From TrEMBL:
CDD domains: MobB. GO terms for biological process: Mo-molybdopterin cofactor biosynthetic process. The lineage of its organism: Bacteria, Pseudomonadati, Thermodesulfobacteriota, Syntrophobacteria, Syntrophobacterales. The gene is mobB. Residues 4-133 form the Molybdopterin-guanine dinucleotide biosynthesis protein B (MobB) domain. It comes from the Bacteria. One of its GO terms (molecular function) is GTP binding. InterPro entries: MGD_biosynthesis_adapter, MobB_dom, P-loop_NTPase. This is Molybdopterin-guanine dinucleotide biosynthesis protein B. Pfam families: MobB.
């Protein structure tokens, strides 16, 4: 599974600002970074009156808008999806996903802390906090970085989650959950699929290939 690191902290502590500085540093090193923002109050990405808003209002379950420079999609859900399922479904090519929020998740967390915003850090012993960015605190037993130590923070993340990570060419998902494959199985899988498709009219060897198979009816 793609590594997930949560950036947590009190409101106005600087989580988004930290991400704005950290993402370019990791991208400069050649890593593909994805982000997820947690919004406990719900969100509205579309503008009232726009065509896609009208599609949604008419009852469309999934709405997407595509352009030559990007694709955006909104999918309605009956319940909040777990963070790991969001990443498994929507992040295929990234080396790391940085999630803003998700303090209650099981994933490793980097807390952003400013004493003028919150009297003490939010994370406790059982919150899987791996580092703190911001003001010094007493009795801290994890690495601490100042807001200016972006390069050092990127070094920490790279060493812990990215340095020895190998890019796998095959991703298979079953009901939104990633199916692990070793290198031999991946090579066998790719060989079989390409061998069959190469016999079809209009075939040309692609850079990437997406196959979606729906079995039976949705529950």
């Amino acid at each position: 599974m793609i590594p997930i690191v949560c950036i947590v902290g009190a409101s106005d502590s600087g989580k988004t600002t930290l991400l704005e500085r950290l993402i370019p540093e990791l991208t400069r090193r050649g890593y593909r970074i994805g982000t997820v923002k947690h919004d406990v109050h719900g969100f509205q990405m579309d503008q009232e009156g726009k065509d896609t808003w009208r599609h949604s209002r008419a009852g469309a379950q999934t709405i997407a808008i595509a352009s030559p420079r990007g694709v955006a999609s909104i999918r309605k859900t009956s319940d909040e999806l777990p963070l790991e399922e969001v990443v498994a479904r929507y992040f295929w090519e990234e080396d790391l996903v940085l999630a803003e929020g998700f303090k209650r998740s099981r994933f490793p967390k980097i807390e952003v802390f400013r004493s003028e915003v919150e009297p003490s850090p939010l994370c406790g012993p059982g919150d899987n906090r791996i580092a703190l960015v911001g003001d010094e605190t007493q009795g801290l037993e994890i690495p601490r970085f100042s807001f200016d130590q972006i390069r050092e923070l990127a070094d920490f993340i790279e060493e812990r989650y990215l340095k020895d990570r190998k890019s796998h060419p095959v991703l298979v998902q079953i009901d939104g959950k990633r199916l692990p494959m070793n290198a031999f199985v991946q090579d066998f899988f790719v060989g079989c699929i390409l061998g069959m498709l190469s016999r079809l009219r209009g075939w040309r060897k692609p850079r990437s290939l997406l196959i979606h198979i729906r079995l039976g009816e949705d529950p």
